Amino acid sequence: MTKFPLILPSIRKKTETKNGSISSANENKLISICLTPLQSVFETLESGPQGLSEKEADKRLSEFGKNEIAQLKKLNFWEDMLDRFKNPLVIQLLVIAAISSLIGEMQSAAVVGAMILLSVGLSYILDNRSNREVESLGKRVQSRTYVLRNGIETEIRMSEVVPGDIVLLQTGAIVPADVRIIWAKDFFVSESALTGESMPVEKSAALPTGTIRSAIELPNACFMGTSVTSGSARAIVVSTGTNTLFGTISKKLIERREESSFDKGIRSFTWLMIRLMLIMVSVVFLIVGVTKG
What we know:
Elements: H1 25-34, H2 38-44, H3 54-64, H4 77-85, H5 88-102, H6 106-139, E1 144-149, E2 152-157, E3 166-170, E4 178-190, H7 192-195, E5 201-203, E6 221-222, E7 227-239, H8 245-254, H9 261-291
Antiparallel strand pairs: 1-2, 1-3, 3-7, 4-5, 4-6, 4-7
Helix pairs in contact: 5-6, 5-9, 6-8
């Protein structure tokens, strides 16, 4: 790979950031780094133009962990189905179907059974679609990248990239982490994986001159999973793994949503209805049994 000259950007006035629009501490950190003069960035990340030493890189790998996005814990088909049938609403429908069958209302039982299959089937399809999106995100990240270690260009696994590494980016490369650009030449990046925009965005090492409301607006930052369409650049790694914007998206796609007050209310109401139905059915069967001797 071609060796790149290092050009320090001129110091410009730090732009004001509206914290209310920053979505996370990691994004806040990236914005802060990209608004800071380069020498201060090196001091903050305890790195330099020659990159990290192998010893320091190994130390940071142990500290920050591998540069990997969240992975799905896959259930087999039957485990997945069992988990879905534990839903209180599905249990209620199963009770209704069972009662309908016991009293001879086979048509009603069939309708309720169809509702159960539809509910479970749709949730299975939607969850699988979400899982495929996460897998697609993971496939966008290449397995190897180039960094400077002790000033020497070195090819490493993408999972071994750590904060403070100096990464070398050229046409066709996938950005391995969230980075601050320190040098760039005719550098364009496709951010469609994050923003959906198909047009490449020009990036440079210059400090932003306007108000920055989100990390995506930073002209001197690149993000994990985005791809270089033309040009070349050097950049210093700010965040890796699940601390990146890319990793945050992946994590949100697979983590379970916290149960809201509405969900808790629905669950409580559903179990109450199930108890009432069981009591009523028991009473009805008791009355029928007594009246018919």
